Each structure stands twice: as structure tokens, then as C-alpha cells.
Amino acid sequence: xxxxxxxxxxxxxMLPPAPELxxxxxxxxxxxxxxxxxxxxxxxxxxxxxxxxxQRNRQLRADIERRKQLEVELGQAEKLRAVGQLASGIAxxxxxxxxxxxxxxxxxxxxxxxxAHRAYKSSGRTLEPRTRKELxxxxxxxxxxxxxxxxxxxxxxxxxxxxxxxxxxxxxxYVPADINRALTCTLAVAQNVVKYAADVExxxxxxxxxxxxxxxxxxxxxxxxxxxxxxxxxxxxxDGPRGRIKLSSRLAGDRVVVEVSDDGCGISDENQARIxxxxxxxKGVGQGTGQGLAISRSIVVNNHKGTLAFKSTHGQGxxxxxxxxxxxPPSADSRLPDxxxxxxxWPAIVG
Length: 351
What we know:
Elements: H1 3-11, H2 22-123, H3 129-166, E1 175-177, H4 179-189, H5 191-194, E2 198-204, E3 210-212, H6 214-236, E4 243-252, E5 255-262, H7 269-272, H8 292-303, E6 307-313, E7 317-325
Parallel strand pairs: 2-4
Antiparallel strand pairs: 1-3, 4-5, 5-7, 6-7
Helix pairs in contact: 2-3, 3-4, 4-6, 6-8
């Protein structure tokens, strides 16, 4: 007998029930039981509907966050494209005059050597001691000045070449590119930040060309190198000892591995899980947008089907590891688990 019916009969003093009421009570009992089943079914339906609504709400929030991220990335890409066009134009305009300067300095070098040789050959002992001393001084110092001028022209030409390479037209196609050259050119572009903070060590292995969007890859390398310089400055200070930054590359199977290491301040344990979150930054107000690493990870993982991980010890330094497939797999899966390294092994991150 249903508990509710039993309580009602007990309240009326009808327990045990009269035999002539058994058929009626059986019908009532069945109705109560069916009502319980119907209520349970309604509650289950409401629970499922509530779960589905919560799931759709979570998906909607995720879609909104993704849309915001895409809008930020699009805005960043437009800014970088404009900067790239500007840098490319400046590099092009600088290239011709620096060639003129270099060619003219070489001409002056050759002409001076001939004039100095003739002056010494024709003068014999007819020159006054003072004049002779001045000629010796000029001949001793002018070659060094010319050599310095040529070295300066060479350096400017290298910077111009790096700017032209870094400001490579942003193609949406994946084309073969020299990753080692991308690293060295990006380092040249970032030299104004790096040279005051750290000495740079290069350990570049022999690599095949990698199918990639070169402009995007350059941006990833620039973000990592500048972050390394900032980490070194944060640890040692502006007037402290110079830090160390190491750029290395190697081939690992069908992937190219690039590491950017520094002996800077490192990343605290509580920040390591959030380091790739959009808008998250450990820098002061006005010093960072929190987009550099988030966009870099999106470029490497989503666009190039690679991996971006890191190893860091707070107070000692950080190493960021970029892996790019030599051949771009257009249908590769892009999972996003925890990017942190665990122990000495590699994490099971993005494929």
C-alpha cells in the first residue's frame, strides 16, 4: 500500500480497511503509485533540460570569449600588417642610400691607399719633420676610420635586410621558410631591447625549410625574445649585471624545435597555469597587454598545428619551446591541454 494512502487511512482510523473497500483502495493506491512515477519522470525531464541549458550556456560563453579573442587577434594582425608595410617601405628606402655610402667609402679606401703610397714614394726625405709626422698620423688612423665606416655600413645593411625579412608580406599561404634566418633576423629587429639586457648565444642546427606563415612565425619569435629580455632586466635591473639569452634550433623527426632560454626572473608557480590566458600579464600597468603569449600560442597551435610549451624555475629562468611541423598538416587536431613541462619529460600537449 502506498505510504500516503496508508497515512490517510490511519488518520481516519480505517486500518485495517474494511473488505468492501479493498477494490476501491487498490485503485487509489495504483493512482498514487502512478502519480509518483509521473512526478519522477517530470523531475528527470526538468533535470535533463536544466543540464542541457547549462551546457548551452557554457558553450555560448565559450563562443563569446572565442569571438573576443578572435577580434583581438584580428586587431593585432591589422596593426602588425600596417607596421610590417611601414618597416618594409623604410627598409627599401634605406637600402639604396646605404649601398651608395658603402660603395663610396670603399672607393675612398682604395684612393687613400694609392695617394698614401705615392706620397711616401715621391716625398723621400724632402718633407719637414712636422709634415712627415702629420702624414704618418693620417696614414695610421684613416684606414681604421674607413674600416669602422665600412663596418657601420655593413651593420646598417644587415639591419635593413632583417627588417625586410621580418616585414615579409603576410601571406595566408603556408610556404617553405628558413627558420634559422627568421630567428636571426628577428633578433636583429629586437636588438635595441636585447642589447641593454643580455648577451645572446646562438646554437642553430641544420634545418630543412618549414611550411609556415613567415610573418606569423616572426611575430612569435619576437614576442619570446622580447619577453626573455624583459625577464632578464626584471631579475638583474637596468644597472645590474648582464643576463644571458640563448636561441637554439634542431630537427626532431618531422618537426623543427626552437628554444628561447633566459636566466631571468622565471615564472612563479601560481602564474604558470595562466601564462597563456588572454589578457593575463605579470607586468605593471601600461607595460604589457597580456596578448603576446596568447596570440603566440594561437599562431603555433591553431594555425601551424605545432606546440608551444615552457619550463621555468622562479628566480632562475625560463625556456620556451616551439615545435613546428616541417610539412603543414591542414587537418591536424588542435587540442589545448596544460602547456607546462612536468619533470624532465615532455608534456602531452597540442598535436
